[in-house]
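Run log, item B.
One chain of 500 residues. Sequence copied directly from the ordering sheet:
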Amino acid sequence: MRMWRTLFLALFLLVFLSGPGAAQTVLKARLLGNISTLDSAKINQVNDHAVAENIYSHLVKYKPGSVDIEPDLAVSWTISRNGEVYTFSLRKGVKWHKGFGEFTAKDVKYSIERTLDPKTKSPNAGDFSLVDRVEVIDDYTVRIFLKEPYAPFLTVTLPYRPGWILNQAAVEKFGSDYGLNPIGTGPFVFERYVPGTEVALSANKQYYAGSPKLDRIVFKPISEETVAEIALERGDVDIMYFRSPEVYQRLKAKKGIIVEEKTGPGVYSLVFNIDKKPFTDPRVRKAIHHAINKEQIVKNILGGIATRGTNVLPPNFLSYTDAVVQYDYSPEKAKKLLKEAGLGDGFKTTLYYSQLSPWPLVVPVIQEDLRKVGIEVELKGLEHASLMSFVRTRKHEFGVLPHLRPPDPDMIFHLMFHSKGSSNATGYRSEDENIEKARVEMSPDKRKAMYVQLQKKLVEDSPTVPLFYLKVLVARKPYVKGHPVDLLNGFWGYSTYVEK
């Protein structure tokens, strides 16, 4: 009888402790808004990226909280002397989520080729434009051949959005619904998405580096910064990335909230469609440079969360230089340039902007500065994803463009200023040849010199007005531990844990 009682008690405890009612460690994280897709080949939005970073793996990844690379699905690699052939030795025994088998070299080949396939319509296809072919040597060895050397291939392309590896069987099974049925090898498994409510992930107990410390991450889409602030204070979310200067000042002063910050590799700019009048005239673009009081924006509007923009590259990028044309705040110079362009009486235009912070605070100041020199600006705010699509397809005359990328100059020059760049919102195409030469130059010193000249040329031509460089801001409850501040719109949940 005692043996049966002992057995019954053991079974009861097993069910109680591990059954559906067992307590789970759940992290509730703020997301800047709803997601649009978790198809890794189609992601180019902040919200999608933050979630996907926990689902997928790369061949190499950024060390959490930095832009240094470390092994992920690849354990080692070699690069040929001519810089055109990359050979990767792959990690063995890595399992796909939800029973889709074991990761092999075939998955790498499929992922890259799918991104390149025009039928996929991947916004990241341009990042693989120099890939000639991918060869599977065996199940755990893959070789990537480039058409020509590309210096940032290992440090930018593979560890960022283009480099996420996916599963062919899963893509074929879910078809057009794959974007909301993602299958990866990362530390968390996609559970469900309820628009406006949550994106839920559960721990991948088979993750190659060991199970995460969290059982679940629940991302809460909250677009309004003050609403997110209240949610953090009430405990409805445990951690939040944010951008509002007002929220920054308030949260820093509150007990029970920890605020962390790092300078981010992003530039936040005004962009002109230089194929539409009056912005075809560089004098008009330079006039707007002089008309905007950037110091006022940085100090009075963005106090503490940004520094003044002067260059198309952020300061933490390779080859950044201060030796570019400096457009001081001067309404007089602005009026003079407008008069020279035949617009002495001013003109009317529409400025399209993102409703994400801090743009709603910034654009009224720009509107007023431009009014003072005779430019009448109508403001039109769009949901962030809609704004990005709108300006990238150049439907605007005048807009804003936040651009956050890994800190290599090719991420600015090729994406934003090459005629075929996926983020070229201006139509600029004057420096295609020099941009192409710089991205294939393997000598660091020569490459740096080439980018210094490109910076000078771009700032002189002024297809954009760099306004400011934002910091990355994170606020969390004290019981949230181990979370690295992500510099590139990600959210690394694997090392994060809750200790109450």
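Observations after the first pass:
- Residues 56-171 form a domain with the Dipeptide-binding Protein; domain 1 fold (CATH 3.90.76.10).
- The first strand starts at residue 26 and ends at 31.
Flagged for discussion on Thursday.
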